[in-house]
Design goal:
four-stranded mixed β-sheet, 10 helices, alpha/beta
């Protein structure tokens, strides 16, 4: 079967925002933005057999998103989100929920066998069940050189360990990390006191990565590939909120790379898309054609 699916794998949940609840979780955000660029995408997660779980499935269906989401005997995940004066979110992520218990099924194994790219993070690996499912999915993917395994690290609260981070960096071939997370990871991995860019070069080389994406908020972003680096400044925009902006960056970047754009071209598109998402409320706005038409 042709490998043509891009998968967002991990948490599926409701962000409980001040103005009401919105569908959240990095995997759905990522897959949604990939789908806007004309690629087949799929969300892999789990929800509870409850009202919130059924609403997530309905919400994904309404957006035309393909999904492989099992219904499990745990409550559907929620996150209490509070925004500061600059629209930056703070999260209170409930534990012991459905996406902590994503089962590895024959259907998920079959999906993995035809997945061209997958994006996963550290949050969904806080529980052993979902962590093992994610690792088995990565192992079941095709071994071709063009297959992308993106670890969008997404450190949240205390839901990570050095062992999980180290294993994930070994299993991925693209690492996406922000400047604050890089400081934490560098301390855990034993690279303190080194310039941020030098840390990126060290990690890129040590783990044999295809790329390392470093985002630095208003201070721009970098994409490191062996032997060269792309830098793009962050546009100044009127921020509504930053929820999901990083996921839109990843979705746009991966879509552009898979469609054959160069790393600098993919990087610029990702920055522009992410900046636009910051001007919109919520994580899943419809992207203007000026972005999506660039990959047609």
């Amino acid at each position: 079967m042709k490998k043509n699916i891009v998968v967002g794998m991990g948490e599926a949940l409701w962000d409980m925002l001040p103005e009401g609840k919105k569908l959240g979780g990095a995997p759905a955000n990522f897959a949604y933005h990939v789908s806007q660029f004309g690629l087949d995408s799929c969300v892999v997660s789990a929800v509870g057999d409850d009202v919130l779980g059924h609403e997530i499935l309905e919400c994904l269906d309404a957006r035309g998103l393909d999904r492989h989401i099992d219904v499990v005997p745990y409550p559907t995940g929620t996150v209490q989100v509070e925004l500061d004066d600059e629209g930056v979110p703070r999260y209170d992520i409930k534990e012991g929920v459905a996406w902590d218990n994503i089962p590895f099924t024959p259907g998920i194994e079959e999906l993995a066998s035809r997945t061209l790219a997958v994006c996963f993070g550290s949050l969904a690996q806080r529980s052993i069940v979902s962590r093992e499912t994610i690792n088995r999915f990565l192992d079941a993917m095709p071994k071709d050189d063009d297959v992308l395994k993106i670890f969008d690290i997404n450190l949240r609260q205390n839901f990570y360990t050095k062992e999980t981070l180290c294993n994930s960096v070994k299993k991925c071939n693209i690492l996406k990390i922000n400047d604050e997370e890089l400081v934490t990871v560098s301390r855990l991995f034993g690279y303190p006191g080194i310039d941020l860019k030098d840390k990126c070069w060290i990690i890129l080389a040590k783990y044999g990565l295809k790329m390392l994406i470093l985002t630095c908020g208003v201070n721009g972003s970098y994409v490191f590939v062996p032997g060269e680096v792309s830098f793009v400044e962050t546009p100044k925009v009127e921020v509504a909120d930053t929820v999901g902006a990083g996921d839109s960056f990843t979705g746009a970047f991966v879509s552009a790379v898979l469609k054959g754009l160069s790393v600098p071209e993919a990087h610029r598109l990702a920055v522009e898309v992410s900046a636009y998402v910051c001007t919109q409320a919520g994580a899943m706005p419809v992207l203007p054609e000026r972005f999506t038409a660039r990959l047609k």
